[in-house]
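User: Sequence recovery, please. Input:
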């Protein structure tokens, strides 16, 4: 069996995220996860929500890690990862009533973020939900000093990376027929933003 990698941030945030997803994904049947990373989130969430079919995805180089966690968990409701890259992937043929992604928007370029929203909209059924976890700016400003430092470190690694502004994401989502319906404040200056396909803005 492959060695299971451990992402410390996942251990810290998984229970707080799960609390939100237990509410948002009640009554949902199939979730597609963009950027499953180590696979720890998928295993933790799928174990707590056995009514869901959890579909993992990531770049091929991360698949061994995801498979290691799936093999260890022996969960019947999590699928093996598919190769998925928002910059070049057509929409997945299957339709889902929910999509989840954590800590991906800030490592993508803004063009890739736009493509992600287009792909999400194409994959979702009407009234489907997109839950996106991570740090976000508000009205063009950082919500904390730690987020400002984190943003600077991202841009030093790659200029196209960086924390995205919630207002900009709302505009991007609007073009894909996705409307922000809820927002949750999370530990460590993170948030979960929830969009619904075809919803009417208040």
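Assistant: Recovered sequence (202 residues):
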């Amino acid at each position: 069996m492959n060695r299971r990698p451990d992402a410390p941030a996942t251990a810290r945030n998984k229970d707080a995220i799960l609390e939100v997803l237990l509410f948002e994904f009640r009554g949902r049947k199939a979730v597609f996860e963009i950027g499953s990373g180590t696979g720890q989130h998928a295993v933790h969430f799928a174990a707590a929500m056995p009514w869901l079919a959890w579909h993992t995805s990531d770049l091929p180089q991360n698949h061994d890690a995801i498979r290691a966690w799936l093999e260890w968990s022996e969960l019947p409701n999590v699928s093996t990862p598919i190769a998925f890259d928002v910059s070049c992937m057509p929409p997945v043929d299957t339709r889902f009533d929910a999509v989840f992604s954590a800590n991906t928007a800030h490592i993508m370029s803004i063009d890739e973020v736009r493509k992600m929203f287009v792909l999400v909209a194409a994959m979702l059924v009407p009234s489907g939900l997109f839950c996106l976890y991570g740090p976000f700016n508000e009205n063009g400003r950082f919500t904390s000093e730690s987020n400002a430092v984190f943003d600077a470190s991202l841009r030093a690694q790659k200029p196209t990376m960086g924390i995205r502004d919630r207002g900009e994401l709302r505009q991007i989502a609007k073009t894909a027929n996705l409307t922000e319906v809820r927002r949750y404040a999370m530990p460590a200056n993170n948030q979960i933003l929830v969009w619904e396909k075809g919803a009417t803005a208040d």
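The two ends are 50 Å apart (CA to CA).
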